[in-house]
Amino acid sequence: MTGNTYTLEFSGENINAVKHSYSPSAILISALCYSISVSISTSIYALIIASFLPFKLIFEKKIFFHNLSKLNLINIFMIITLSLTWPEIKSGFLMGILIAVRINMIYIAFTAVIYPLGTSGMYNALCGLGVPEKMRVLIILTLRGIYIMYERLEAALISVKLRTSNLHGIMKLRVFAYLTASVLLQSSIRSENIMRSVKCKGGFNGFNQYENKGITAADTAFIFIFILYSLSIIIINYA
Amino acid sequence: MHISEGILSGSVLIAGWAGSIAGISYGLKKTEPEKIVRTALISSAFFLASLVNVRIGPSSTHLTLLAPMGLILGSSVFPAVFVALLLQAVLFHFGGLLVLGVNTFVMAFSAFTANLIFGKPIKNENGKIRVIVLSFMAGAFAVILGAFLAGAFLGLTDKNFMGAVKLLLIAHIPLALIEGFVTSFIVIWIKRVMPEFLS
């Protein structure tokens, strides 16, 4: 057990959050329309048209090269796998390249437009799309729970490392399983206490943090432009 | 088990989203308001547990913990998996938003089916060896079913993916064995400490 967990940036979300002039729902719909049109594209001409947006985003933001290099290392592995497992090596290789191009385009679009919204922006976007209240509460509580549980899991991993430095085979899996089960049980007990405190404060009514700004004319125009762009990619693909 | 963006065809993506939305709606309907906090905290605990690397020989893997999630949450596993994968996509850029429907269906359906098949026997069984065997089967079954579903989505996109699908299934066999062992240890621990924790 290495105990490597991904570092959670507690304040990073707010720092990286980008203030958009459009509503999160409009941004999410537009980015999804674009990525759907890219994901079904097989024609080189359609992909050339689709590549205008990623190129524009790369030149505007200039932050992708490090992440893209990591992503493309995985893509190389995928291209080799497809080349070796496809009925013909050449067509497998070309399919791998096509998928890699599409992955890069969708990744750039999401990294530049969707992910900077942060979890609060994503929450607002889902609310704007009519996601039920139970789901909204679940998202907020899960996000909150991650930070609470992260501290607990980290402490448990450190204590395991200090107590047992040389674990092998089944024993290693057993220790990890007991640790996980213990964290799960603690989380369940904690959830009961949280539920009691929520009830004392008047139920889930105070949980709705959604700021309903409504869809503005600018949002409508933004979505319309992206739908047109996505449709043009699809039409060129099937032409 | 995460399928990346840009691989699946439009119709397959729609099918995945349809299955996920149906599962999430059913799960949300079945989740009582009192159980939302529990579902959320367990979802976050699973989210974190799956980020811990376990070194196996020269390489390392992260566990999916599908079967324990299904056994504990029951039908609430659909919304729990959806939220965990959504947050993984937003916070760590794992998987993606477009394939979120497919990935949710693959993982949540496997966990839910493992609970449907093995949930009652595990809960009612008192013999330690039988519980270990049943839990092992549940853990391994959930991973194999997940890999099979992921393979089916790839195969539906293009028949030529079948070579890669075979490779995917073979690669998941060791993970299924490891998941089986981990699930049996988790279930034994829970049954000893707090048996009512299983759904």
Describe this structure in words.
Chain A is mainly alpha-helical. In chain A, 76% of the residues lie in helices and 0% in strands. Chain A has helices at residues 12-16, 24-39, 44-50, 52-61, 65-85, 89-114, 118-128, 133-163, 169-200, 217-238. The radius of gyration of chain A is 23 Å and the shape is flat. Chain A starts with 11 loop residues before the first helix and ends with a helix. Chain B has 199 residues and is mainly alpha-helical. Chain B has helices at 10-30, 36-49, 66-73, 77-92, 100-124, 128-157, 162-193, and strands at 53-56, 59-62. Chain B has a two-stranded antiparallel ribbon. In chain B, a hairpin with a 2-residue loop joins strand 1 and strand 2. Chain B starts with 9 loop residues before the first helix and ends in a 6-residue tail after the last helix. The chains are: A mainly alpha (239), B mainly alpha (199). At the A-B interface, helix 2, helix 5, helix 6, helix 7 and helix 8 of A face helix 1, helix 2, strand 1, helix 4 and helix 7 of B.
Concise structural overview:
The complex is a heterodimer of chains A (239) and B (199). Chain A has ten helices and no strands.
Helix content of chain B: over 70%
List SSEs of chain B in N-to-C order.
HHEEHHHHH
Cα gyration radius of chain A (Å): 23 Å
Q: State the end-to-end distance of chain B.
A: 25 Å
Label the structural class of chain B.
mainly alpha
Shape field of chain A: flat
Range of helix content of chain A: over 70%
Task: State the secondary-structure class of chain A.
Answer: mainly alpha
| Main sheet: strands, sense, barrel of chain A | none
Q: What oligomeric state is this?
A: heterodimer
**Topology, number of strands of chain B:** 2
